[in-house]
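TA notes. Do not distribute before section.
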Amino acid sequence: MKNRLIIIAIALTFVSQHLYAKNTKTVEFKTFGISIDKPNGWFDVSAEDYSEHLKNIKTNDDEFTDLIKKHATIPFFAITKYKEPHDDLNPSIKINIKPAGNLDLSKPDMILKSITSVLESKFLNYKIIDEPKIVTINGKTCSFARFSYTLKIDEELSFETTSALWILPHNNQFFMIGAGFRTDEKNGKFEEIKKIINSIKLF
């Protein structure tokens, strides 16, 4: 279960090559009990595009990279700031849902700690920016962590990348929310992403 969570977390944050309320559309997923406000200027990512992006994932561990590509699941919600194909790292947000299994949903920060503790050895120049901690989204308790690394596409192309993860429990399951963007934020600010994440509501 832990390894599968790590694989999903990496997929959520890796596929990533000013927001005002009037410029958003609320997207509801009634089966899962969640809604999020999508900015009108952002673009949906299809399952086909997501699968194609997975092929570009590279880590410091070839076996681990192969596991990610084999077992990563398609998110039910995925958007990018710019229309693909995009020549730069494309700011993105993605959401997966997972059953709790034997995980303690009262401690979502511990779930994130188990993920980030493994990532350090898998990515070049990995650095924790925000240690896993408890936060809230619209009054709902969740956990949050942020980290940076060098995303290597090939021998000549790489991006200094920052990823953020949230674990949001809901009933006997949890949402794993991932975001990825340039560390220098030249083409997308983290604050912009947080505004979108903070629009999430559970029902």
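Switch to the second chain here.
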Amino acid sequence: MGKASRNKREIRARKATPTLSGPADEPAGGADRAALGTEALKRLLSSNSPGELSLAGAYAFGYMLLGYAEREGGAPDWIQACDPLDTLFLGAAFPQAFRDPSEFANLRDAWLRHLRGTAYGKSVQRFVREAVTARRRVRVAGG
């Protein structure tokens, strides 16, 4: 299949896929946004086999842990200040517990140094680029 055909197929698939770009209180495609998000998170978490966590799976676990910490309370204050890279590490390190923000930051930095130069490291770099790009788009759209 040529590049043009592949691009056309991707465009058709994007048009056929419902988006969540409407107002926050408006259902997307007749479904509740929270339910869609929950289902997507469940699918992502269940797609990772034991002992083999994908980058997306690690982020999903980190996101889930942040949500759990917020819902249940009692989490350290620093955990609420996690950015996307911190969230990725939090999920990858699960079930590791951290005594304080310094231990968390030191272990996160050691993990990133360990990944440098590997395929995983390149994936993390791409993840960071995408997160920064998304943040810029949100800022521009928000005013």
